[in-house]
Design brief:
This protein has 3 helices and 4 strands. By secondary structure, the protein is an alpha+beta fold. Helix 2 links the parallel strand 1 and strand 2.
Length: 121
Amino acid sequence: MDAEGRSETEDDSQGNKVVLSTVHQAKGLEWSVVLLIGCAEGMIPLERALQEAGGEEEERRLFYVATTRAKDHLYLCYPQSDYSRWAGFANLSPSRFLRELIPASRKKELPFEQWVVEEQW
């Protein structure tokens, strides 16, 4: 039951749900729309994985899995900045995997739009 007392099957039949998944859990699944967040360098690929032999290629495979879960629409997002208690604010750059996709999408005439959303903290 959800907060309004509806069973999960009621919501399922109307398609009114959002599924939160990790990249690892998404293997073998598909959704009409996939929103992949955190596509910033150090997040995808994970900075710690880059320190291991074969880590970048494993992260690339995971990124491929995540991006191929979308049947109709794929949205790839990255934050321009991040905040942590230890380091404070840090400017972030797009993942190297995103930077590789942008020129490839233009060659194949795939739909690509860049949106910048800025909010003051």
